[in-house]
Design brief:
The structure is a homodimer of 338-residue chains.
Chain A: H1 10-17, H2 21-28, H3 38-51, H4 57-64, E1 69-74, H5 81-95, E2 99-104, H6 115-118, E3 125-129, H7 136-141, E4 146-149, E5 160-162, H8 166-180, E6 184-190, H9 195-209, E7 215-221, H10 225-236, E8 245-248, H11 251-263, E9 273-275, H12 282-285, E10 292-294, H13 297-312, E11 325-327
Helix pairs in contact in A: 1-2, 1-3, 5-13, 8-9, 10-11
The structure holds a DNA duplex (30 and 30 nucleotides).
DNA sequence: CCAACGAGGTTTTACGTATAACTTTCTGCG
DNA sequence: CGCAGAAAGTTATACGTAAAACCTCGTTGG
């Protein structure tokens, strides 16, 4: 790697093509209709290609005062969910000439490092998952265009929000299980302080309350297979009649519940119906395949990016929750006849 | 925020503190030992905090000619493996004042978009997984410091490489299964043209060839649960004596194999032993828990970043593969007595 | 007593780009 | 013929920062 050869600049290209630097900028910026003749433009392009010229992004960003780069703040990437959100957001961004930089907030619970210190790139806007709440304080400081994913519309200080219709998903789960005949429910709740999980608990409770004769208990667990297994084991061995349906806040919790059920000698779905939420790859890896609510993470990311583009242009993004739908597989069945 | 919507610059801070812009730069750059008095420095810091000053990264990058930002090119983030690689790399990077930008190459097989178009940030270096090979051509163009992950040392054009000792992992798997008494093997190979997968096949073949009376067949599948399931079903119903041990190129393939085995009425591990490679969360979600080779993805990322730091300083990173180790769980047992 | 020095700053410049403002030449037309 | 205006450029400037070069004192050692 020759340190003697520094990267060519637009001035080098200009010299090679025998024109001024401004001409190079005009040609390469595709803004030369009637400013530069075609032969000259051709010479410039050839010289640029010859030298392997790449514009200096730092200089361009400085000049233009914007970077066409957006930050996506997500909780730790322990599932593919946010990877898919990224994919969707990046696709839409690319269509508009933007790049997306990913900032997974650190796994630990401590206060997040400053996302902007990590993403050394200057930024034009931010999309933040409400689950990365610990990183929020740093974001608030900058008055960048901001879109929140799955955040309490009232609690996000007027920032635009894009939400999955989780409430409807839970409603579909409840409906499905009630129709099968279940009446004793256990809610395996994610032990994460986030609005999107509160919605699950609230919606399940209100839906079940509308049907007489139902019973709802709740167990809390961190979002991990081991945590879910322990919490479920404890809940299943609690006194009183055993629940027949286990509603989990997400698929990972359901996977832990499977192990607890197996250890307790319960068969799924014959003795216990289980549902998840997310429809990760995990859902079809376990046996029986999990009845769960499919969240279209890519679409979620697309909507988030579109909303941010709107905000950056000073518009108000159109609201409207993203629909979700129940996928019935083998983990739910009518309750055992007592 | 009082006046216009423009962000405060170091000049604004200077004016507020009653000093020159240069003084601000000196104080905030922590390079003022004996250049600025403590009281003045204090005034500057207060003014900066008061105004909510944040240095313009684009300007700084332009001035310094470097960005302290590094690109991590990975295949699609469909498992948590590369998320952990990122975590490790980002930790080491942060310790050295660097940021890491993630570039997941698009899922499709088509030619990758230019990573540098996506990561609008200018870059000081690149860490690239060899599994994102389609993005490589674009990288070659720039003569940036480059470190390859899991790449053929001979085939990477002299770029530094950091490798997991996959060969040793496969050796441990073979040893384990041979010790249990297995002789008829099926290798479920990832249908991905990558050196790191070739190593698996080669090492397994040579190790088994060293033991007389062994038999090795191979099935190929894309890295997905469904793909693995189909390939395994086909292989298990092939004529001839059924294999008793199934060595999978990674955990996801093993999960698919589980389903195929179940559908074929085979119990794991009694009728069929199965091994994986990666030790993803998936490995302990399925039943029985998977005997697999644990790859320390975070450590992998750390080594990659350390190597890149060395390359960027003009040094030659110390080679040496990263050790891996077999984790024996419930999916392997002695072969069925015929 | 004065030169040298260092503390504590300030002035100036360069990084590479995009673009506004300007210049020159040529063409068409009244 | 004279001049408007377009075509095809060029010159000059600003973006915000870091740091080299410079300046001005008060102190001090010889």
């Amino acid at each position: 790697m020759a340190r003697g050869s520094t990267r060519p600049t637009s001035r080098d290209v200009a010299q090679a093509a025998g024109v001024s630097q401004a001409a190079v900028s005009l040609v390469l910026g595709e803004k030369w209709r009637g400013r530069v003749s075609e032969p000259t433009a051709q010479r410039v392009r050839e010289a640029a290609h010859e030298l392997g010229y790449r514009p200096n992004l730092a200089a361009r960003n400085l000049r233009l005062g914007r970077t066409r780069t957006v930050l996506l703040v997500v909780p730790a990437l322990t599932t593919e969910f946010f990877a898919e959100v990224y994919t969707g957001a990046a696709r839409i961004a690319a269509e508009h000439g933007f790049g997306v930089v990913l900032y997974p907030s650190p796994e630990g619970v401590g206060p997040a490092r400053d996302p902007f210190a990590s993403a050394q790139a200057a930024l034009d806007g931010v999309i933040a998952s409400s689950m990365a709440a610990d990183a929020l304080s740093a974001i608030r400081g900058d008055q960048l265009p901001l879109v929140m994913l799955d955040s309490d519309p009232d609690g996000s200080l007027g920032a635009a929000t894009v939400n999955l219709d989780i409430a409807d998903g839970i409603r579909q789960v409840a409906e499905h299980l009630l129709t099968l005949g279940h009446r004793r429910f256990l809610h395996l709740a994610a032990d994460v302080p986030s609005w999107t999980f509160e919605v699950r608990a609230h919606e399940l409770a209100t839906r079940l309350a509308a049907t007489p004769g139902t019973e709802l208990r709740t167990a809390r667990a961190p979002i991990s297979i081991e945590g879910a297994q322990k919490a479920t084991e404890a809940a299943l061995t609690a006194p009183g009649p055993r629940p027949t349906a286990l509603v989990c806040d997400d698929d990972k919790l359901a996977a832990g519940a499977y192990k607890a059920a197996r250890r307790a000698g319960l068969r799924i779905p014959d003795d216990l119906s289980v549902t998840g939420l997310d429809d990760l790859g995990l859902a079809t890896a376990i046996d029986p395949e999990l009845t769960t609510v499919r969240l279209d993470a890519e679409l979620f990311g697309e909507h988030g990016m579109r909303a941010l583009l709107a905000v950056m242009e000073g518009l108000t993004p159109d609201a409207g929750d993203i629909p979700v739908n129940l996928v019935v597989r083998g983990s739910t069945a009518p309750p055992p006849q007592h």
